[in-house]
Amino acid sequence: MSVIVIVGTQWGDEGKGKITDVMSETADVVVRYQGGNNAGHTVIVGKEVFKLHLIPSGILFKNTVCVIGNGVVIDPQVLVEEMKALQSRGIEVNPEKLKISSAAHIILPKHKALDKEQEENREEGKKIGTTGRGIGPTYVDKIARGGLRMEVFKKADKFKSQLGELYSLKEILAPYIIDTVKYVNDAIDAKKKVLLEGAQGTMLDVDHGTYPFVTSSNPTAGGACTGSGIGPTKIDEVWGIVKAYSTRVGEGPFPTELNDAEGELMRKVGVEFGTTTGRARRCGWFDAVVVKHAARVNGLTDLVITKLDVLDQFEKIKICVAYEIDGQRIDDLPTDLDLFSKAKPIYIEMDGWLQDTTKFRKFSELPYNALRYLFKIQELVGVKIKIISIGPERGQAIKRDL
Ligand code: IMP
Q1: Of 120-129, 151-160, 254-263, which gets the smallest average pLDDT?
Q2: 206 CB less than 6 Å from ligand 1?
Q3: Separation of 215 CA from ligand 1 center, angstroms?
Q4: Torsion sign (Cα): 262, 255, 259, 308
Q5: How many CB atoms lie within 10 A of CB 261?
Q6: Whole-angstrom Cα distance, residue 81 to residue 213?
């Protein structure tokens, strides 16, 4: 491994945090490249549960340096709280371990207020179901060239009125703020192992997702370049994180959604409730059309399948292989939201394995039907599977040995 991008292939919450955590042990640098505290990663280490929103989970390892890249939008209060919470649990957070881009934009109180107000004012059917964290309005100001960047904390007196109540955080934050573009590129030149960690997922990408039911940044692999300041030629691998079924938080079309007992079982067993907002996630069958789209727009080199164990109790398991739209079979993701909203899934059905997979530590020893399911996903998506995750703990991730 030298430079690897980790991206979500569905609607976020694929388990990127866990995989980044597992890989961070051998990484020298972990970089977050877009989004903000709309994201939430839960990492379980032994009996300890860490919920992180802005700081990459690599912070939990002593020798890994974490970077919050220029593409991220930062709520300074949330960041400081996260830093303090980690410190209070004995995790080292200092300017050696955490670097914050001077060019990352600041989420101001007005952005949060506007996010909530806009959401309230959207009529039914047009609501996006944002996390209310001010993400969209902050990116609007960034693109409109009216935003404030983290660099202002280094010259806070000049920006006192714009920073308002955030001004008081300048002493804490200033030592962490650097030119992370130089830092990350120097690390790559020095042959360090660098992990670029995406938040949300491909279907929430502002360009490649189900617009306008998306977030306001580019979680896809291209966003890793712009959001961290590295060139595409520096990237060696792009790993797509794929949940063994599908979930979505917030509004927008979701063809394989299950509003029945099976969906309820997925939610219960998979503990499908948002890390950030606590909202129940919508659940449904695996959608190969969506993940094939993700393979294409991200140039995926490998797949990591997560939460396979959540399907342990299902007698029959379905995979959506195409859609029926207006009586026609469609094999690729329609870019027109009106068409996508009408998509009815065309399923294949496979036998479940009805066994507890959480105990397995070897890919080749997984139940036959579980392997069949995994190989079917691989065949449909056209990208090889590298790792399987069968539970939330660090040890419950197995490398492919077949
Ligand atoms: P925003 O990012 O708060 O503007 O929300 C836009 C959409 O993205 C909403 O549907 C959110 O539910 C969704 N979203 C944002 N962050 C995440 C995430 O980390 N996981 C899943 N959905 C997310």
Answers
A1: 120-129
A2: no
A3: 6
A4: positive
A5: 8
A6: 29
Question: 276 in helix, strand or coil?
Answer: coil
Distance in Å, CA 237 to ligand 1 centroid: 25
- Answer whether residue 240 shows pLDDT above 70: yes
Three-state secondary-structure class, residue 77: helix
**CA separation for the pair 112, 27 (Å, rounded):** 34
Catalytic residues: 13, 41
The structure's pTM equals 0.96
Cα–Cα–Cα angle for 39, 28, 148, rounded to 5 degrees: 45
H or E segment at 304? strand 302-306
Angle among Cα 142, 169, 133 to the nearest 5 degrees reads 45
First CA to last CA distance, the chain: 20
Query: Across the chain, how many H-helices and E-strands are there?
Result: 12, 20
**Structural contact between residues 87 and 54, judged by C-beta atoms closer than 8 angstroms:** no
The answer, yes or no, to whether any atom of ligand 1 lies below 6 A from the CB of 135, is yes
Residue 341: exposure state from Cβ atoms within 10 A (0-12, 13-18, ≥19): middle
95: Cβ contacts below 8 Å, ≥ 6 apart = 175, 176
